[in-house]
Write a structure and sequence with these properties.
It is a single chain. This protein has about 290 residues and is an alpha/beta fold. The chain is about 30% helix and about 20% strand. The protein is built from 8 helices and 12 strands.
Length: about 290
């Protein structure tokens, strides 16, 4: 039996993370937990949404903490429970959280300013992690026993995050010592950005890179980059750390289809493999028809 994949996509705001997830998943089978305003605006554009005017089911979680009642946490907790319920009854098979960063930011405000947990010893950041990580466990545990018609069990889970830049502290003027750099990656508080990656099959960074005579929105994968880490359990994406181009067209659907085929012991479609290798020869992103002939 094949377990549904889980992917964490992070990158700068506006780079196209939501559109990538929207294009990869069938709307009628997807529930979208929106934690920021306008998260699903791309769904209303026929240029961005190939299924226009079809839209995923959306649960909006935009509660602002105004009192000591834990409304921020309770709202997302209820949304995750509803998503798992719909998966269990077979209504949906995909869950998207867009974005974990926005939810963590409001939770950070609630814990620091409403509850009053201070910054000392990272207590507030740890408290945020203790709220967010159980959502991952709940999604996996509540959906793990649900078998979909195609033999896959569990829900395909996509978490989107904003990006946090790496930080290099200044040299200590008194001792001349260079402090250790802080890695970037998903914009999540404290150690959560590192811990949360353990729960995903894919961790990809979305970025804009110069390609040929122009620029392209791409997924970046470099297993040796500790400052902006990525991950690919399937080993299907070009890895700069192993001598590959390290970038591919921002087509999450192609990655998921190739990974699912690999899990099932089947041959992946040539068109999907070509998309994954679209930049391997130094060329720009081509049309699907052109890619098949590479």
């Amino acid at each position: 039996m094949i377990q549904a994949p889980a992917a964490l996509i992070y990158g700068p705001s506006g780079v196209g993370k939501t559109v990538a997830a929207l294009r990869a998943l069938t709307p009628e089978k997807t529930i979208w937990i929106s934690t920021e305003r306008g998260a699903l605006k791309p769904a209303s554009s026929p240029m961005l949404n190939p299924y226009h005017p079809r839209k995923p089911k959306e649960i909006v979680c935009l509660h602002a903490a105004q009192g000591r009642s834990d409304n921020v946490h309770a709202e997302v907790k209820a949304a995750v429970a509803e998503a798992c319920r719909l998966v269990a009854q077979g209504t949906v098979s995909n869950i998207v959280i867009d974005t974990l960063s926005s939810y963590a930011r409001r939770l950070d405000y609630f814990i620091r300013d409403i509850v009053g947990v201070g910054r000392e010893y990272g207590k507030a950041a740890d408290a945020i992690g203790s709220h967010v990580l159980p959502y991952m466990d709940q999604i996996y545990e509540m959906c793990a026993t649900v078998t979909r018609p195609n033999g896959v069990y569990g829900a395909t889970f996509i978490a989107l995050c904003h990006e946090r830049d790496p930080f290099q502290p200044a040299v200590d003027k008194r001792t001349g010592a260079q402090a250790k750099a802080t890695p970037g990656g998903p914009d999540l508080p404290g150690a959560l950005a590192k811990k949360i990656r353990h729960d995903f099959d894919l961790v990809l960074r979305a970025d804009i890179r110069a390609v040929g005579d122009g620029a392209a929105r791409v997924f970046v994968h470099d297993s040796t980059d500790k400052m902006l880490p990525t991950k690919d359990r399937w080993g299907v994406i070009s890895d700069r750390g192993n001598g590959g181009a390290g970038i591919m067209t921002m087509d999450l659907g192609a990655i998921l289809r190739v990974g699912a085929a690999q899990d099932a012991g089947l041959a992946a479609l040539d068109a999907d493999l070509a998309i994954l290798r679209s930049f391997e020869r130094g060329g720009s992103a081509a049309s699907a028809a052109e890619l098949v002939n590479l």
